[in-house]
From TrEMBL:
Location(s), subcellular: Nucleus
Gene3D superfamilies in alphabetical order: Ribonuclease Inhibitor
Pfam families: LRR_4
UniProt keyword annotations, A-Z: Leucine-rich repeat, Nucleus, Repeat
A GO CC term assigned to this protein in UniProt: nucleus
Family to which this protein belongs: Belongs to the SDS22 family.
SMART domains xrefs: LRR_SD22, LRR_TYP
Native source species: Lupinus angustifolius
Name under which the protein is recorded: Protein phosphatase 1 regulatory subunit 7
Amino acid sequence: MFEYFGCRTDQVMENLQNLTNLQELWLGRNRIKFVNLCGLKCIKKLSLQSNRLTSMTGFEGCIALEELYLSHNGISKMEGLSSLVNLRVLDVSSNKLTSIDDIQNLMHLEDLWLNDNQIESLEGIAESVAGSKEKLTTIYLEKNPCAKSPNYTAVLREIFPNIEQIDSDVFS
């Protein structure tokens, strides 16, 4: 397994094109504004937490990606994820999201972290995660306006038949 732990790159992802067998990339807290993965088709785990991303574009070619961590950025729209069909974990917590989009094709998604965003309603969530309804075992939506809705937990448990955890509540 190849890993690369980044250092301060001052907003630019560069010199990755020769790391074609790279499987994990951890670049948290680097002030990165744009994603440029130079065709890293073998990458399985990618963390860009606590950067300055405002967009989710740039991951389309990472077809082997299984875990994507994008928390604590400034992302306002979920996009560019539909081709990531092997994704099992998606963390987009603590961003500026108002809706759940572009993940209906993700059939292997098990963990979805959306807490600390601005998602108003649970309406449409079943359609948004249609491909992973049976597979999803963990979802975090706390600290979103939708988490204050009546029957919040009951609605999510009905949508996701195999759910094991909603926020910090674990079910047996």
